[in-house]
Amino acid sequence: MDMSNLIKNITDDYEKIVLNKIPLIDVRAPIEFIKGSFLNAVNLPLMNDEERHLVGTCYKEKGSEEAVKLGHQLVSGKTRQERIDAWASHLNIYPNSIIYCFRGGLRSSISQQWIYETTGKEVTKLHGGYKAFRNYLIDHLVPPEQIVPLVLGGLTGCGKTVLLKKLDNSIDLEGLANHRGSSFGRYVTPQPTQIDFENNLAYALIRHKHRGYSKLLLEDESVNIGKCIIPKPLYAYFRTGNLILLDIPFEERLINTHNEYVIESQEEYLNEFGDLGLSNWFEYISGSMSRIKKRLGGDLYNRVIDCLQFAYQKQLESGDATAHKNWIEILLKEYYDPMYDYQIQTTTRKILFKGNTNEVLEYLATTQI
Hints:
- With 369 residues, the chain is α/β, with parallel strands linked by helices.
- The chain has helices at 14-20, 30-35, 49-62, 64-74, 77-93, 106-119, 129-139, 160-164, 173-177, 194-211, 232-238, 250-273, 277-291, 293-296, 298-318, 324-346, 357-366, and strands at 10-11, 24-26, 41-43, 98-100, 124-126, 148-154, 215-219, 224-225, 228-229, 242-246, 351-355.
């Protein structure tokens, strides 16, 4: 490819990137990447945070020409080669990757040029960069036309998320938010930034629309999923969906909740923190309990926290986590279940169907939802 043709190796086919899950190389500085990026993007910066800061200061004080000159001085020699090697290594694995900076301007053009000059690899640049792609995704954070939302509801522990994952025409909002959607729902790994959550949600909506479904199945969520907020127009659209209720026996719900919030959650903490994992898990659960103390009321809070402390101490002594079912049972029966029952009794949304997992799946299949 002639150097003069590099400028032609550019794309603005954002939909293709979303649908084909095309890998992306983000050459912005790490501080920019952390604030928000895209699925399938890896941060391989042209300049690190300090270099970017120095160049930005130079631009403000001395203008564009001097800033570009400083940038080339800072990223030269061994540093320049290390950046190129990182890009080339990624392209060896993902040769169809697309490169971008903030506006699709100088940084991505320089990176594109250096890659070709040094390795002969031809990499496509994203037209408009991060800003244009982000705006494209924002434009798709609106109620999808001619697609009817259906909301999967049910008491805590009935397995709504598990059921959703079995269906191609669903979007797992909790999965996108990396949160279980309750006061105790935080994972060890952090939630995405609000920008990343919105970008990921836009990806999911675009892919769902492309599949041609007339219905969109979602879990019954509040506007906040942990710290992630569902955009208002979409949340209002989701709330127009009629309900399908998942209903399973209490004992199964208790087992599911114990497995998810105790067994699996403790395993996450142990994998992340080693010997401190169990104590860190207990600190998080007890802290979460304190945050809903007013809603629980003093008497219920005291009984639940006493049961939690007893179960934790017993687990430390014997290694047996079974006693944690006691405080979970109290919370389900005396807090979560009454609250959800009230919400269902007062809802204005139509309940289309209620049944266990197999019955709901059969209903969805036979009604071509």
